[in-house]
Amino acid sequence: MSKSLPYNELSVVPLMTQHSDHIHNLPSGSGPETQLRTITGQVFDIQRFSTKDGPGVRTTVFLKGCPLRCQWCSNPESQQKYPQVMDFPNSHVISGKHMTPEEVLKLLKKDTLFYRNSGGGITLSGGEPTQQAEFATELLRSCRQAGFHTTLDTCGYCKWEVLQGILRYVDLVLFDLKHMDARRHKELTGVSNKLILENARRMAQAGIQLIIRFPVIPGCNDSMDNVMRLGEFVSNLGVRRFDLLPYHKFALQKYEALGMDYRLKEIEPPSQDKIRDIKNALESFGLEISVAL
Ligand code: SF4
Description:
By secondary structure, the protein is an alpha/beta fold. Helix content is 32%, strand content 22%. Helix 2 packs across helix 4 (133-145), helix 4 runs parallel beside helix 5 (160-167) and helix 8 (224-237) packs parallel to helix 10. The longest helix has 14 residues, at 224-237. Residues 1, 66, 68-70, 73, 75, 78-79, 126-128, 155 line the site of iron/sulfur cluster.
């Protein structure tokens, strides 16, 4: 998943950054532009001027709710579907807010010129956006109608029928693959990879534009055996674009703020040599590799 910034960098008072609309600063939904709709979503962050979640300059909308429990999750506040209080040393933040697609779209439209000039658009991330399928579909449909390029960032763990409905309005999918071994995948994320791999195959067969994303987590999924299996699987899909996402520790303060145990506390980010070796191995399958900074 994309990385929502640590809350002390985004916080409403007093630390909001120039480029982020923190959820607390989002409109309440009582304005005249709000239509009467029953569809609402639980949104926990909206980041403007993102350059890492698809082409060009984008706005990334983060939705709550995820069926996985990855040990390295960098957005632990995204996992539950309901709003949560985060207790930071100098502030309390409520993560999650009900919003209508129209409210979100109004914010997204602020940066229309940036999307147009950079070839950017909107990215829906989380959490796992397909967990709020109705809201995600309606928001993406509205974005398409507004002429925005749309990207879905997904872990792929979703019924195909549900995914199909959402994909009608998606131009690009950022598809996370975490481990090729089903048993190890379950140990690390709480679920088997069977449905995920099947959905990756189905998307590729359906001609969906895909970029595979692989979080490199030392000691968890960075063995050469796993990397080679991954390279073979992705090249067989006919997909070429592949992003490496090296593990980082930025989420630690979020775990503390949520009172959650961070099991990977002792793990250090992968070395540059390790990333280079993985990149070289994947390139031997003809994949185009980008490394996220
Ligand atoms: S798929 Fe894993 S990393 Fe992504 S939001 Fe869910 S638990 Fe976190």
